[in-house]
Amino acid sequence: MTENEQSAGPRSREERKRNALRLLESEFDLWAASADAAGVPTLMPLTFLWDGEAVWLSTRPTNPTGANLAASGTVRLCLGTTRDVVHIEGVVTAFTGDELPDGVGDAFAAKDGWDPRKEADRYDFYRVALDNLRAWGTVPELRGRLLMKAGRWLV
Q1: What is the pLDDT at residue 4?
Q2: What is the pTM of this model?
């Protein structure tokens, strides 16, 4: 969001939805927040793929993030800037490289040139089905920031 957009007042919920989808399609990395069974949090930047319905992540299953995603089945994702936030709560399904649906691994690799399937260490993939999505810029946009609830767009 530019300074002019901030001074123009809060964006409509429809504008925020369009912007959230634009960021999902165009950004390369996001922040993934997870926690272990004891509630110890982990926050990591990860490369991602948006397939139009879900977010795909990849990390080693032995990393805290990979272990947490597989064990809990939940994650919180953030992308954008602190003045243009897209915050997603999602449900996770874990896949090994051999279990991936057709085309996902190739699309993931094509997005920014990194193919986790070719790494010496094992990398798993995690499909994040969007459950809730919030988008806001500054305080005036806090009202109405919930744009998706229980996997259904509200706008």
Answers
A1: 46
A2: 0.92
Task: Give, rounded to a whole angstrom, the gap between the first and last alpha carbons of the chain.
Answer: 20
Q: pLDDT exceeding 70 applies to what percent of the chain? A: 95
Q: What DSSP character marks residue 88?
A: E
139 token code pair: 């305080």
112 to 47, 69, 109: CA distances (angstroms): 8, 23, 6
Q: Which CATH superfamily is domain 3-153 in?
A: Electron Transport, Fmn-binding Protein; Chain A (2.30.110.10)
Residue 12 clears pLDDT 70, i.e. is over it: yes
Output the pLDDT for position 7: 58
Q: Are 108 and 49 in contact (CB under 8 A)?
A: yes
Q: List, as one string, the DSSP characters of 100-154.
A: PPTTHHHHHHHHHS--GGGSSS--EEEEEEEEEEEEESSGGGSTT-EEEETTEE-
Is the Cβ–Cβ distance between 33 and 57 less than 8 Å?
no
